[in-house]
Amino acid sequence: MQTHILGYPRIGSKRELKKACEQYWSGKTSLTELLKVGNTISQQNWKLQQEAGIDLIPCNDFSFYDQVLDMILTLGAIPERYLEIASQKAELDLYFAMARGYQKDGLDITAMEMTKWFDTNYHYIVPEFQKNQQFSLFSQKIINEFISAKQAGVNAKPVIIGPLTYLLLGKEKEEGFDKLDLIGNLLPVYIEILKDLQSHGAEWIQFDEPFLGLDLSKKAKETYQSVYKELRREFPDLKFIIATYFEGLKDNLSLATSLPADVLHIDLVRCPEQLDEILNIIPQTLSLSLGIVDGRNIWKNDFEKSLNFIEKAVNAIGSERVFIAPSCSLLHSPFDLDSEKNEEILSPDIKQWMAFAKQKVYEIVSLKKLASGNANYPALQQFAENKKAVDTRKTSPLIHNQQVKDRVDLTTDDDAQRNSPFSRRKEDQQKVLQLPLFPTTTIGSFPQTQEVRAWRSKFKKGELTAEQYDDLLKKETERTIRWQEKIGIDVLVHGEFERNDMVEYFGEQLDGFAFTQNGWVQSYGSRCVKPPVIYGDVHRPHPMTVYWSQYAQSLTDQWVKGMLTGPVTILQWSFVRDDQPRSVTCKQIALAIRDEVNDLEKAGIRIIQIDEPAIREGLPLRKAEWQEYLKWAVESFRISASGVEDTTQIHTHMCYSEFNDIIQNIADMDADVITIECSRSQMELLQAFADFKYPNEIGPGVYDIHSPRVPSKEEMLDLLKKAQAVIPAQQLWVNPDCGLKTRHWDETEKALIAMVEAAKEAAEAFDNERNLVS
């Protein structure tokens, strides 16, 4: 029986990578220093796993930005617009330009598209494919990391995105070809990489192929078979682990077990029922890796339950063919529970139920010891402690609130219905709001400077009184309101300077949530989030945003949006309790947000935005299961939004999602205005709304806020023209792609001034054209 880890968090125990990258981007540190930080994190991760007793330790799971972008660079699949940088700059500078865009030295190059990694809140860089795309070994990162691990005395297992998953993650950038047809050009480079690894002593290779858990075309299935037969023919002595995760194999079970691999990894957290199915057909040449420790949540493993899985597998195929592992990469888990030392933030009662990445490593090692039958006293003691913690969580009075349960049970279909259809609401809202053609707004947050973050830190440490902190935030809010008035934005926002995070801020004010000091996970690049923990029944004990929304509205005669995070997004971006259906937890959150929406309306806020960027992210990976999820997800949003009068305008925001196949469900949400990310895809996402003849109003983003480059007015005008070509002008809003919290003020000011000018010019041009026609 062997243990292995599929991947480990790479941000560092104290977010060292985030800080080092951002210092390098700002010119405050050198490339040498950045590379040193990356190497230190890798070495520390390897040492931790080695000392814990993990048998096969991953390498090449470290990344300075994104593992898919690493593979793009390794394979030389560099889009043509970056070739000038490639010839002039260091490899890592090219890499960051592809991720973030590049706007200096007389060059102005847009970033590559970014989207969600399956159904997680992690974002990956989308490979761009042209017809007859050529690949060549460009970066030596995979080989260099293996050599580094070997020199450190680590039994390293290179982790590589499998060739089929790499192609399926990408996007054809021109018509007339199927990206799977590129496999003939791609496979020779994979073979070259494996030859290099083998020549340096690699024995094991982990191919990540999560697409084996998704719906596959006949062509994709046939390509899987031919690709892995070719790889096995080339490398009869290399040991292949094919890793699947996030979903069960289901109809791809016979395909996956027929591939010529040595080990097949399956996710038994997401799909425990697949173990019996696979044990019935697994060939004698194939070993099985049991993904039994949850890589995506923070709850302690139930040792008793996991040992039953292991025992079943051992009885069927023998211990020598059983591997023990987390369900997926631990990238999605916080670093170390031992760093949570403040009991006022995370109480011991709740902490005892939790395990972060480091603790999960030790859980895997303990499970091996316990399953082997010769466990020592510490392992047996850990088993007893584990059972006590699991049992305590099941019966704790902290978890259950009967009033909340009763309110959920008493909700009806009427609670999810607005008073009137959108066509009537639109007329009523326009009479009250008096908004111009192409109204401008932002998504909510404005830059949180070091000064603002310092105020929050000092307040938490007791160095500022509540009154002093409040006064500073009011001045920053007023400054932001005045600046928006000055440049001519139509619908203002208060800037959200009081908020730490769009989910954490609400969780802190809702019962049923717990928090951490250092539970950071990577969202994209240097962006890290600290998801709250939903451990019990959720309800709102008091208003959460009314104070700041009401204050901001009191400063101006223009409309100020109330800003809320929607129930599905709060659910998706939290670590969620696993002892009841997610749909029930979501409805509890929806009722809490409904109370807040109603209180905002009573306070005079006539435009309220309920952000739902995670609606698409929450989709099950199998289409057959979509409608069940979409039914309760859409219902939860509508419950949160439907308690207001027709004259109150409800907005929602979504980003980094494909909408084509769920557009009816988006329409069913019945938001008066939806704002979406569109700039990186050059308004491509709008086509789904156009084909559907989406009836409500829509704000396609014209400014990519995930890149530091500042788009010109002409660039935004061009995007607005593309939008007008498919969506009637009377339905269009003008806004950035997302919130501006992570940007700097100088670039924000330049971009928003250009955005307002672009909107005014588009409105003038439309009026002139309309006058000519009349």
Q: Please report which band the strand proportion falls in: under 5%, 5-15%, 15-25%, 25-35%, 35-45% or over 45%.
A: 5-15%
CATH class of the largest domain: Alpha Beta
Strand order of the largest sheet: 1-14-13-12-11-10-8-2
Largest sheet: 8 strands, parallel
Compact description:
The chain is an alpha/beta fold. It contains 28 helices and 24 strands. It is 44% helix and 13% strand.
Structure, explained:
An 8-stranded parallel beta sheet has the order 1-14-13-12-11-10-8-2. It has 2 domains: 2-395, Alpha-Beta Barrel (TIM Barrel); 402-447 and 486-773, TIM Barrel (Alpha-Beta Barrel), CATH 3.20.20. The protein is globular, with a radius of gyration of 26 Å. Helix 27 (713-724) packs across helix 28. The protein has 28 helices and 24 strands. By secondary structure, the protein is α/β, with parallel strands linked by helices. Strand 12 (263-267), helix 11 (274-281) and strand 13 form a beta-alpha-beta unit. The longest helix is centred in the C-terminal third of the chain and has 29 residues, at 745-773.
